[in-house]
Amino acid sequence: MTKQTLPKSLPVLGEKVEIKYKEKVYVSGDRTDGSYAPSSLTIEIDTTNDEDKQEATLLHEILHAILDISGHADVIDDLKKEEGIVRVLERVIHKLYKRR
């Protein structure tokens, strides 16, 4: 696969989601690979990770954005369950993407 530049924004269900790349990303004081902020429709990705991890993290955060924007995050109403669902989907989709 050729090296690709990761996007700075993406349309998600009709909404523009901004993507910011930072050396370190924190959520509630804890360092993480990425985050999605529903209030600002913004994803942050930690650039200290390798490109493959950044791609997987971006996919993971896009899945959170899809659940949020579609209203399904409220239906799940449990952060641990949402995280579990998103992790499974991210791993499967990322592996399929890498095989192409």
For this entry, give a set of tags.
two-stranded antiparallel ribbon; four-stranded mixed beta sheet; 6 strands; single chain; Arc Repressor Mutant, subunit A; alpha+beta; globular; 100 residues
Overview of the molecule:
This protein is an alpha+beta fold and 100 residues long. It has a single domain, classed as Arc Repressor Mutant, subunit A, CATH 1.10.10.2910. 46% of the residues lie in helices and 27% in strands. The chain is built from 3 helices and 6 strands. It has helices spanning 51-70, 72-76, 79-99; strands at residues 9-12, 15-22, 25-27, 30-32, 34-37, 42-46. Strands 1-2-6-5 form a 4-stranded mixed β-sheet, with helices on one face. α1 packs across α3. The longest helix is centred in the C-terminal third of the chain and has 21 residues, at 79-99. The protein is globular. The termini are close together. The relative contact order is 0.15. The mean pLDDT is 93.
Short structural description:
With 100 residues, the protein is an alpha+beta fold. It is 46% helix and 27% strand. Helix 1 crosses helix 3.
SSE blueprint and pairings:
Blueprint: E1 9-12, E2 15-22, E3 25-27, E4 30-32, E5 34-37, E6 42-46, H1 51-70, H2 72-76, H3 79-99
Parallel strand pairs: 2-6
Antiparallel strand pairs: 1-2, 3-4, 5-6
